[in-house]
Specification:
The complex is a heterodimer of chains A (376) and B (371). In chain A, strand 1 and strand 2 form a beta hairpin. Chain A starts with 9 loop residues before the first helix and ends with a helix. Chain A has 376 residues and is mostly helical. In chain B, strands 5, 6, 7, 8, 9, 10 and 11 form a 7-stranded mixed sheet that branches. Chain B has a 4-stranded parallel sheet with strand order 2-1-3-4, with helices on both faces. Chain B is 44% helix and 15% strand. Chain B is α/β, with parallel strands linked by helices and 371 residues long. Classes of the chains: A mainly alpha (376), B alpha/beta (371). At the A-B interface, helix 5, helix 15 and helix 16 of A face helix 3, helix 8 and helix 9 of B.
């Protein structure tokens, strides 16, 4: 329990250790000495702070930047970072949206449609006229929020699985993309481009600031407000939440609408970062967004999660991409490196390491003394 | 759900009826063609009909594996334009596979069942659609895949494959680069998805020329930097290359370079020489960009939206009994900012940015196609 979901609140930890004791009770008496050796592990488990997932991915990201510095210094040069960070920010915002849905036990396959539709609205509606950017933003927001609301209603009221609902929604949205664009891309407007590539302070570009602010706001709402705490409770178990007098439907719909808003913001930024974004520009964000959520330690089964961890994981994935791209290795190697990083990241969160170690040691008690004897 | 299933039932019934009607219509038109040729007007025809357009009346179809970008839209308009020159083509059917292999296959099968007489196929999905192409050929449809090789053999699986040699394009780029770079420099070559034949052929063509110039080097991934022909990815790849290499003297790219110029601005680097395919957007941006980037020179080859015309002519000729045309599709230089030959950089302001000045359509026809 504590290993599959590494951000246990005090309550979670109690449950986990209770489970561990129950497990221990089932262990035959002759294996009792093995339990003594577990004290270290138990304390290590207890040491894990509440924001464990965020700490793990932050450490990994810091390590990645260090590795980059030594292996390929150019990949952390100013010019490389200014190229990478805006895209990392877009991915982070998409990942925050994806986290909300996954916290409700769903998965959102409509990311490509949502982002592409926003990009297309932001480029085709103004068609070079900067004064029409604001109406375009309003239109994009209205369309994506409506789509999110519809998806939320279908999932929570009608009870269609989220994977099916969002798959269908994605097709619908891509239809809208084709209808508006006719398949032809348009150049972005000067106004939007200046906004999305402009710097706020100290050379930090707008998308990065927007991503940090948005992640912060969502984090605050989920972790520090009553609505947010209820939101997580509903995600952990809609039934239990209902029994406790909460309204799961409202929170589930909220997740889809909130996610749609995130995708829309990401799409608006993307439409400004790329001079002539393609009409299916959102396609590239589906899998990385899920990968970021998983790397961030949010359980795919729903419940507890961390949007901050997801956003940092987005930075991790983007820098990893930048690093392998800068080394100039073949695309086969690039894919392998990324897959390996993902596998490691997921393994950290989902393999029950402590139990695995226990089992290995129990099978072969001989090597136990060397670790215990010198210490004692 | 029930609505869609009854809807699809309706559609399939309608298709079946259409197929039956189509078959009988074809039978009728075949007869018509026979009487016409035995009857009269071979002499009167030659005045307004091209040599490749025979007497037999046909239904023509273009099966596109993917149809939703500007290049394809212009291409389809060019195909319609070419087919309209031949009065024997009674009907022009277009299907769009939407990038879906299964749909592309059933499109071709559907057209065969409808009894079209001539079929041009853009086999985006390559060998996956070959069985459907073979079925069409075996059913007596004049079948002509073009531009993307579906495998198979002419005369066995289809009538002819209309190809263009992308290595010629690579050679054209490389010869211009050798001149502009004076035989030395770093080139960033950006291509589509990994291991696609178009880029591999272009690379091979460039290498044929660069073999004699050891001071010209490709930077980044070999044989090309993978962008998946995606605008954002192109920008990311370019900014990674700019970060790594303090000197990049030229960029060779066969996909929307215009969409990725921001990478240079962000890295505060000057745009160097660029070789690519013609795009109205890039041509229109050229003057503006040139002011801030004095080293920026541009060389383009034709985007070949007109290539489909060769395939149409061949298929129509074979199906109507006309004279078989030349099937050679040459790669041709289009714009050269240095010499101004064959054309200086040409911005057509009346056309949208995603249009192609090298198209053989009239400006109005192209604008209409892209609407």
């Amino acid at each position: 329990m504590s290993t599959t979901n590494p951000s246990p609140s005090p309550g979670g930890r109690n449950r986990a250790s209770a489970a561990a004791h129950a497990h221990d009770a089932a262990v035959p008496a002759h294996e009792a000495p093995a339990r003594v050796g577990q004290d270290g592990r138990a304390s290590r488990r207890a040491w894990r702070p509440a924001g464990g997932a965020a700490v793990a991915i932050t450490a990994a990201t810091a390590a990645l930047f260090l590795v980059s510095l030594f292996v390929q210094p150019q990949s952390v040069s100013h010019s490389s970072l200014t190229g990478m960070l805006p895209f990392a920010a877009v991915l982070a915002i998409v990942a925050v949206g994806q986290t909300l849905i996954i916290q409700q036990g769903g998965i959102d396959l409509s990311v490509p449609g949502m982002v592409s539709l926003t990009v297309v609205v932001m480029t085709h509606v103004p068609d070079g006229d900067s004064s029409k950017v604001v109406p375009a933003i309003a239109l994009a927001l209205a369309l994506t929020l409506a789509a999110g609301l519809l998806a939320g209603v279908l999932v929570s009221y009608v009870g269609i699985t989220s994977i099916v609902t969002t798959l269908g929604m994605n097709a619908l949205l891509l239809g809208g993309v084709l209808e508006i664009s006719g398949g032809g891309p348009r150049q972005t407007t000067e106004g939007l481009q200046d906004f999305a590539t402009g710097t706020v302070a100290l050379g930090i570009t707008t998308p990065v600031v927007v991503a940090i602010a948005l992640t912060g706001v969502v984090w605050f709402v989920i972790k520090r407000t009553v609505v947010g705490r209820r939101f997580e409770a509903v995600g952990a178990s809609a039934r239990a939440a209902r029994a406790a007098g909460l309204a799961p439907v409202r929170h589930q719909i909220g997740a889809y609408v909130g996610a749609a808003a995130c995708y829309c913001v990401a799409g608006i930024l993307l439409a400004g970062i790329v001079k002539t974004p393609g009409v299916y520009q959102g396609e590239a964000y589906l899998l990385p967004s899920v990968a970021a959520v998983v790397l961030g330690g949010t359980s795919l089964l729903g419940g507890r999660g961390s949007v901050v961890a997801s956003a940092i994981a987005a930075l991790f994935l983007s820098q990893l991409d930048q690093l392998v791209m800068t080394t100039g290795v073949s695309s086969a190697v690039q894919n392998l490196v990324q897959a390996a990083a993902l596998a490691v990241g997921i393994a950290v969160h989902s393999v029950p390491w402590a139990r695995l170690r226990e089992r290995l040691q129990r099978r072969d008690p001989a090597p136990a003394p060397p670790s215990g004897a010198p210490a004692g | 759900m029930p609505m869609t299933s009854s809807g699809s039932k309706l559609v399939s019934t309608a298709l079946a009826i259409a197929a039956i009607l189509g078959l009988s219509a074809c039978g009728g038109s075949d007869d018509g063609g026979a009487t016409a040729s035995s009857g009269s007007s071979a002499a009167t025809a030659s005045a307004d009909r091209p040599a490749w357009c025979g007497e037999r009346e046909i239904t023509f179809a273009l099966a596109d594996g993917f149809g939703d970008n500007s290049w394809r839209k212009v291409t389809v308009a060019e195909a319609r334009d070419e087919a309209s020159k031949c009065p024997s083509v009674k009907e022009f059917i277009y299907t769009n596979g939407q990038g879906d292999t299964q749909k592309s296959i059933s499109d071709i099968q559907g057209l065969t069942a409808q009894g079209v007489n001539a079929l041009v196929v853009f086999a985006d999905q390559g060998k996956a659609v070959l069985p459907a192409i073979r079925e069409a050929y075996n059913a007596g449809v004049v079948t002509v895949p073009y531009r993307v090789f579906p495998g198979g053999e002419a005369g066995k699986d289809y009538d002819a494959y209309i190809r263009t040699d992308f290595s010629e394009l690579g050679e054209l780029w490389a010869r211009w680069l050798v001149r502009v770079l004076d035989g030395r420099g770093n080139i960033a070559y950006l291509g589509g998805p990994p291991a696609n034949t178009q880029n591999l052929e272009q690379y091979e063509g460039m290498q044929r020329v660069f073999r004699d110039y050891p001071d010209i080097r490709f930077v980044g991934q070999a044989p090309y930097n993978v962008t998946d022909w995606d605008a954002a990815r192109t920008q990311q790849v370019l900014s990674a290359l700019l970060a790594k290499y303090p000197r990049i003297d030229a960029v060779a790219v066969d996909f929307g370079f215009a969409s990725a110029v921001s990478a240079f601005r962000q890295a505060r680097r000057e745009i160097p020489a660029v070789v690519t395919e013609d795009s109205n957007q890039l041509s229109c941006m050229y003057q503006e960009l040139k002011a801030d980037n004095p080293r920026f020179e541009l060389f383009t080859v034709e985007s070949q939206t007109w290539m489909v015309r060769t395939a149409v002519r061949y298929a129509v000729a074979k199906a109507t009994g006309g004279e078989l045309p030349d099937v050679n599709v040459p790669q041709r230089a289009f714009e050269d900012s240095v010499s101004g030959r064959p054309n200086p950089v040409t911005c057509v302001e009346t056309l949208p940015p995603d249009s192609f000045a090298s198209s053989q359509l009239s400006t109005e026809a192209q604008a209409a196609a892209l609407k």
